Amino acid sequence: MSYNSRQTCLKVLPVLLFMLFFQVSYSQYNFIKVEDWMEDHLKDLGGRAVIMIYKNGKIVYQNDENHLTKKQKIIGKYIARKKGVELDQKDFSPTSRVRIASCSKWLSAALVMTFVDEGKLKVEDSIGKYLPIFTQYGKGAIKVSDCLSHLTGIKQVELKESIQSMQNLHSMDEAILALAQQPMEGIPGKTFHYGNAGLQICGAIIEKIAKKDFETLFAERLAQPLGMKNTDFGKKEVPLPAGGAWSTTEDYMNFLIMILNKGAFNGKRILSEHSIVEMQKNRTANADIQSTPAQKRATAYGYGEWVDEEENGTTKAVSSPGLFGSVPIVDNKRNYCAFLMVFNMKYKGRQEINADLKKRIDAALGY
Question: Rounded distance, CA 11 to CA 117, Å?
Fold first, then answer.
């Protein structure tokens, strides 16, 4: 064999080994019905989608499909302009950076729990302890726990109005004053209204405790240790903890792996196992339900995440789907996590479509 031939073999060998590894990993499971789901629903998902599934210490499935029609591009631009959000129409891949809307809530709740782990904050603390402005307006007794589970009782404005109002503010203090001045619609701890208020308050509290801005805290405590190099909250003057994050499929999967592994990632402790359990407890079983999102008509909610499956009081599966269609899933019972990354303004029938995907993933993994 010539020198050049040997060099070529040495270059090709790692690629062949990588392909063989993936082939072996995939061959353990049959994902044909998941692929059929993608094909059947790609148009409903907005024409672009990435699915990634992790089990037993490795990525066992990954697929990205892109077929954004001319009509979808035109409609997407119109709706994005109407809703006041940014829109990128490039093909999606596992490294595409996309706005993830309410998938942000899970990240923000986890960030708050890092302070709980350190003893710098208690979920039973009143918000007035850290933000006296709420005491001035008669809301100081609301608990941090209430904020993490949308049980503040504070009346909230529609999403579009909320986003627009945030864009007109210039500091977290302004955002908190606006919330403190909002009327109440129910009893704190007993009134569930899915929205932005609670996590905005939590964001302000941890800023006061750490004397650092929310974006920096997220980078230092979660993004950097989890290798989430392309995830942040938009680096705005006023961050939106409940819906302002941008991420990639690869980045968010690292976060989900940490949750699945009960707070550990690559041998490093990010959150305590106790905090993971506390985040996944159903906090709304006896709540008065004022409002749930159209894409998730459910009532069981923990800290920053929906409780999708319970057995004998133990949470088996959780998720945190976003307005624009992305869906992160952690299934403790079946020991896997998955992430669907999409960007689509249309949410009609989305809950049923996502439930079908979950069933197909379960079946593909042998459940």
Answer: 47
Domain residues for the domain of 222 are: 31-80+101-364
pTM over 0.85: yes
Question: How do residues 57-88 score in pLDDT, each as one tens digit?
Answer: 999 999 999 988 777 666 667 666 765 666 66
Q: 207-225 burial string, b = 16+ CB within 10 Å, else e? A: beebeebbbebbbebbbeb
Burial class (CB in 10 A: 0-12, 13-18, 19+), 284: buried
Q: Which two tokens stand for residue 246?
A: 């941008």
Which DSSP symbol is given to 69? -
Q: Is 63 helix (H, G, I), strand (E, B) or coil?
A: strand
Helices 249-260 & 104-117 angle (0-180, nearest 10): 40
Q: What pLDDT, in 10s, does the model give residues 151-180?
A: 999 998 765 556 666 667 889 999 999 999
Please state, in angstroms and as integers, the Cα–Cα distance from residue 55 to each residue in 2, 29, 223, following that order: 43, 11, 22
Domain at 42, CATH number: 3.40.710.10
